[in-house]
Design a protein that fits this description.
elongated, 9 helices, Beta-Lactamase, two-stranded antiparallel ribbon, seven-stranded antiparallel beta sheet, 21% strand
């Protein structure tokens, strides 16, 4: 279901429930029935959303734990590329990553495919260095594939010595979100802090970096949904 139809779907559902309630409980006023139903549905959606958010967080943490276990290996912590590469190639095969790489504290990274680049300006690298946390990038289009980069600090004797990076198919994250369903036709999607869609059943919305908050500025029908996302 497209994001534009979500508001209509919820509105229709509430209307149908109100009609049923008024027909069954004739002594209740229409206004009271409408208010009660809307409150119940709103509460139900909030509870379901919290439950699903917990599920998504747990599965994301499992993915992060994979990389953290790799970063804890002695062959990685020693920061000798020849030793690191052999260990990383094993983990690429083990976890199904596209590639892995090691960056020094200045952001100079070398990947298992021997490509080198500097990622010091990338948010996922900065968070790994500054906050010492494992983090994910937004989906990145590379050729015909959407890729997510994940980064975690490498520490030796408690001191940061580099950053371990893994690239994997965005489908892994998208599938976690896409399998969530509200009722028969409702679905979930994920946005980043800027309101850009990063996971959705309609993958084209991810590719297009759909942003309801910005779209609502020119499309009044999207304003209610945009308010929910903010």
């Amino acid at each position: 279901m497209s994001k534009k139809s979500i508001g209509r779907f919820i509105g229709i559902s509430i209307s149908l429930l109100i009609i049923i309630a008024c027909g069954t409980l004739g002594y209740m006023s229409y206004t009271r029935a409408a208010s009660t139903m809307q409150n119940n549905i709103s509460q139900m959606l909030k509870e379901q959303t919290k439950a699903y958010a917990t599920t998504i967080a747990a599965k994301s943490e499992k993915i992060a734990a994979e990389l953290e276990s790799c970063a804890a290996k002695i062959r990685i912590r020693n920061m000798v590329w020849e030793e690191q590469k052999s260990a990383l190639l094993e983990d690429v095969e083990r976890f199904g990553y596209i590639k892995m790489g090691v960056a020094d504290l200045s952001g100079n990274v070398i990947y298992t495919d021997e490509i080198r680049e500097n990622v010091s300006d990338n948010k996922y690298f900065k968070l790994a260095i500054q906050n010492g946390e494992t983090c994910f990038s937004d989906p990145i289009q590379e050729g015909n594939q959407l890729v997510v980069y994940m980064a975690t600090p490498i520490k030796n004797e408690g001191n940061p010595v580099g950053v371990l990076i893994a690239a994997f198919d965005h489908k892994r994250i998208n599938d976690i979100v896409s399998e969530i369903q509200f009722g028969k036709t409702g679905s979930a999607y994920m946005i980043n802090n800027d309101g850009i869609t990063v996971a959705h059943r309609d993958i084209q919305l991810v590719i297009d970096k759909d942003n309801t908050i910005k779209s609502a500025e020119d499309t009044p029908e999207l304003q209610d949904l945009a308010k929910l996302e903010q």
